[in-house]
């Protein structure tokens, strides 16, 4: 599945443990990435500073659902279920 244009749900819902430009301590889940543009695209796409987790994320119909709101909920649920204690 190709990412839905203008979605950016994964850029909000997931946490990023590694430092990224502008966030030396990473990004908490539920916080929009500072590199998410106004049209919900990644300003670091293709940039070697882009976090590995972002490049490894694969959009699927089961995870992303039919619309952005579904994707936000489903990805947040997955984030919570896989969070280390």
* Arithmetic mean of pLDDT: 92
- Proportion of beta-strand residues: under 5%
Round the Cα radius of gyration to an integer and report it. 12 Å
Count of helical stretches? 4
User: Would you list the SSEs in sequence order as H and E?
Assistant: HHHH
The figure for the number of domains is 1
Helix content: 25-40%
Number of beta-strand segments? 0
Unreliable stretches:
none
Main beta-sheet annotation: none
- How would you sum up the global shape? globular
Give me the oligomer status: single chain
Distance between the termini: 31 Å
SSE-based structural type: mainly alpha
InterPro entries: Puta_zinc/iron-chelating_dom, UPF0153_domain
Protein name: Zinc-or iron-chelating domain-containing protein
Pfam families: CxxCxxCC
Describe the structure.
With about 80 residues, the chain is mostly helical. Helices cover about 30% and strands about 0% of the residues. The protein has one domain. The longest helix has 14 residues, at about 70-80. It is globular and about 35 Å long. The termini are far apart. The mean pLDDT is about 90. Pfam families: CxxCxxCC. This is Zinc-or iron-chelating domain-containing protein. It comes from Thiohalospira halophila DSM 15071.
């Amino acid at each position: 599945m190709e990412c839905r244009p203008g979605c950016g749900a994964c850029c909000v819902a997931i946490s990023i443990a590694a430092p990224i430009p502008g966030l030396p301590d990473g990004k908490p889940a539920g916080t929009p990435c500072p590199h998410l543009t106004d049209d919900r695209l990644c300003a670091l796409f293709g940039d070697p500073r882009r976090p590995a987790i972002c490049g490894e994320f694969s959009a699927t119909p089961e995870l992303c659902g039919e619309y952005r709101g579904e994707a936000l909920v489903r990805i947040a649920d997955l984030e919570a279920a896989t969070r280390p204690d």
